[in-house]
Write a structure and sequence with these properties.
single chain, mainly alpha, 2 helices, elongated
Length: 89
């Protein structure tokens, strides 16, 4: 396995990790931003008020995106197993 193959493998691994994390992180980011704007508009300065909505939004996104995430990870894993079989016959 050459250096370019290893770099491509690391790039693919990082891309899959980004794709797996991005939906959950984006939903919690948007939820936190909206709640911060709401808190600023109403002058409520309670830090714990944002925790539960972000947790619920992240959990709902996991439930919604879980089939896609499993499919993506399964494809990545089978690709890695195929590469491993090529390197170690």
């Amino acid at each position: 396995m050459s250096e370019t193959d290893i770099i491509a493998l690391v790039r693919e691994t990082l891309w899959v990790a980004l794709l797996l994390c991005a939906p959950i992180l984006l939903v919690t980011l948007i939820t936190g931003l909206l709640l911060s704007v709401l808190q600023a508009a109403t002058s409520i300065s309670e830090a714990t008020l944002t925790f539960l909505p972000k947790l619920v939004a992240g959990g709902m996104m996991i439930l919604f995106a879980f089939p896609w995430m499993i499919h993506l990870f399964r494809d990545y894993f089978t690709h890695m197993i195929a590469l491993f079989k090529q390197v170690h016959p």
